[in-house]
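Box 4.2: Ligand-aware structure prediction
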Amino acid sequence: MGICEGTAELHTEAKIPLIGLGTAAVNQNEEEIKAAVATALQVGYRHFDTASTYNSERPLGEALNQAFQNGVVKREEVFVTTKLWNNQHDDPVSALKTSLENLHLEYVDLYLIHWPVKLRKEAAPFHFKEEDFLPVDIKSTWQGMEQCAELGLTKAIGLSNFSSKKIEDVLSYAKIPPAVVQVEMHPMWQQRKLREFCSKHNVHVSAWSPLGGSHTPWGSTAIMENPVIQEISQKHGKTRAQVMLRWGIEQGVSVLPKSYNKNRITENFQIFEWSLDFEDEEKMSKIEQRKSFRGDMFVNASTGSYKTVEELWDGEI
Ligand code: A2P
């Protein structure tokens, strides 16, 4: 696993670009997503992150296919990630085939188990009832993910929102080890323990909400408003978002900021020709840690596989 020219190398030997466009938002507007993807491609983004539950697969796929047809970029030059939702754990192959239809792609570059949580098929996307929760069986779901890779539907497979312990469990039985784990990560939730674990096991880390998810229901503006970030941003003449994203890539992770705004998409990509210094890193390492998205919705005291948030994260919260 190495880092070169804005990419990191996965254990599959594929290169993952260190910045990707995130596409999770409430009230998704297809035209807005298509325009954002087209802008991002022009600016230089070659990495796009979606999920079957985001309602962004279809517009992302349309914008990419348009770009392929217009010769803006070739399929093999972009890295596309999508994810298996909690009510699809029984059949990752069928779930990924549906995602590929939505995306109008023959394969994705990375397919992730979105959460270590299993729900019945009928479960509504985000309002789970007690009867929706099923006993989680990651081993059998992982076998389905391995089949996806063996069938060539995805180049790599991985995990999202898994604790170090849960990743270790998967590593103990995986025929194909996870190439990536995607987790909440920003200067206020630095994931030092998990990153150390992943580095030892050659698992690349991607950061969702690398800007702390400001103005989203799952994030907060606290990190954007943190005085340390403000000070470093003034010192370098960079925006606070650029400081946070630069910090992320200097940690060796890939960052997936979401923006559908042309100026902010452009701003977020300008993180390669300058760097933070030792003093900045020191100051940032001391920022008080607080996870924004605790995942209470994935916990159920009577029917869930996790009775408490601490169980969901194996104490890593
Ligand atoms: P918008 O889509 O209007 O640009 P995260 O990627 O950490 O989840 O954060 C996403 C949030 O941060 C969105 O509300 C997005 O708003 C906002 N955002 C993205 N880029 C920037 C930026 N450069 N400056 C300020 N806010 C940003």
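In the box above, the bound molecule is adenosine-2'-5'-diphosphate. The longest strand covers residues 79-84.
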